[in-house]
Structure formats: C-alpha cells, structure tokens
UniProtKB/TrEMBL annotation:
The chain crosses the membrane at residues 7-27, 54-74, 118-141. It is found in: Membrane. It holds the Pfam family RDD. This is RDD domain-containing protein. It comes from the Eukaryota. Residues 2-153 form the RDD domain. It comes from Vombatus ursinus. One of its GO terms (cellular component) is membrane.
C-alpha cells in the first residue's frame, strides 16, 4: 500500500514534468506525446528518435524517484509519504531476531544515513528498471526483508506509537 501511495505521488510529478517539457518544446499533439512519455506505450509507428526520448525521460524519472526516496528515507524521518501514512519507517539493521510472533528485535535500529539511503534507493529503483522485481524477495528472506534492504543494511518497521 505504501508503494502505491508513493507511485501516485511520483506519477503526478512525472506527468507534470512531461507536460512542462511539452509546453517548453511547443509540442501540440498532447495525446500522442502523453501515450509515449507518461504511459510509455510503444507501437509500430514509434520512431527511433521517439524511443531515445522515451529512454531519456525514463532515466530522468528513475533518477527523480531515487532522489525522492533518498530525501524521504534519510532526511524525513525514514519514511516516504506512503510509509508514513501506513505507520512504517526504514531503519538500519545488522541483525534481526524474532522475539515473539510479529515482533522482531532489530540491532542497531538507528536512523538511516545518506550513504545507506543512496545505496538502498539505487538498488531498489534500478532493479525495477531492469525488470528484476527485487521487492518479490521479501517472500523468501527472513522478516519480510527485500534484497535491497539486506544489501543496504536496512529494514522496514512500524513506527513507535503506531499500532
């Protein structure tokens, strides 16, 4: 659910960015441009030039998503808006031990520093961009951790005071 909230926020930002590019570039055919750059739809009429532009927009968007997550996880208390609304946050984790059903002791459990936030965001977002859904790994690792959380040394937990 947190990812969905963040997706809609970022989709709005992407749409705004693309529409701004359209306005500055003087492009008048909104429907074709929107299909190519916002929805990233490719058909038999898509030219190599359009594909190159789509790749540039996709890369810029992916970097924007990374910056969004880095700022939120490192600078805004360990949570993107989606995580915050659901009472979650990201903390550092070298070791996690099950102490009761649905309760885990996380060591050291401190705020995420900028380096860790950058590593986590880059692995998460570029694994998604390369068609490897890294979030699926939460089904296989202990305490529902994803591969990017394990590599970065983080874990998603419920915020204190949220039940």
């Amino acid at each position: 659910m947190a990812e969905m909230v963040d997706f809609f926020i970022l989709f709005f930002i992407k749409a705004t960015m693309v529409l701004t590019i359209m306005h500055v570039s003087g492009i008048k055919d909104i429907s074709k441009f929107a299909m190519h750059y916002i929805i990233e739809e490719i058909d038999e009429d898509t030219s190599m030039e359009d594909l190159q532009k789509m790749m540039i927009v996709a890369l810029i968007y992916r970097l924007l998503v990374c910056v969004y997550e880095i700022i939120c996880i490192w600078g805004a208390g360990g949570a993107t808006p989606g995580k915050f609304l659901l009472g979650l946050r990201v903390v550092t984790c070298d070791t996690s031990v099950l102490i009761a059903p649905s309760r885990v002791l996380v060591i050291p459990s401190s705020n995420v520093n900028i380096t860790t936030s950058i590593i986590r965001a880059l692995i998460k977002n570029f694994s998604i961009a390369s068609f490897f859904p890294a979030f699926i790994t939460l089904l296989f690792f202990q305490h529902n951790r994803t591969a990017y959380d394990i590599v970065a040394g983080t874990i998603v937990v419920k915020r204190n005071g949220v039940r």
